[in-house]
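Exercise 4. Each item below gives a protein and its sequence. For each, produce the structure-token representation.

Item: Epithelial membrane protein 3 (Oncorhynchus kisutch).
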Amino acid sequence: MLPITCKPSVISATFQSPFSDRDPVQMAYLLMFVTLLHLITLAMLFIATMEKSWWVWDGMENSDLWYNCRFDNDTGTWLCASSKETEWLQSVQVLMVLSVVFSSVSFLVFLGQLFTMSKGGLFYFTGLCQVFAGLTAFAAALIYTLHNQEILQDSRKLTEGHFGYCFILAWVCVPLLLISGVMYIHLRKKE
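Answer:
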């Protein structure tokens, strides 16, 4: 039998990060893009968690993770009451808040690593926090999708309503958070 030999330089070259051989200008643009993407997804995630439009009935009544609101034509204001707490609603609330926390921690750690990490270091922890934020937002949106009847049980008929823009924002955040997390993992610090 012939012995199998492998050159270490060939193996290491095949498993390099796709961003490792970029010039400093490209890395600076990539850094700016990832930072901007992170801030945009963090803002979208915060809006999706705090705004009042996860489920909408005819534009005059809506429900979110915290309140059920009706628009009063006489006063021109929204009248809101706390949503009935169900286990599914609490799960969605906790997961969305966790997603905001993971993404916020990820950004703060990224800023810290940007100024303290040595040249050539990778942003693994930042990327993992971003991926966890994406997974928790995914779980929250999926639970709300599958269990909206239990979550909105005391509200009007669901057939008369539809998902609101905050629900859609939560779903849009999922791939953006996952993509930025993967980009952080491959991003290498250059000086």
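Check: DSSP finds six helices and five strands in the chain.
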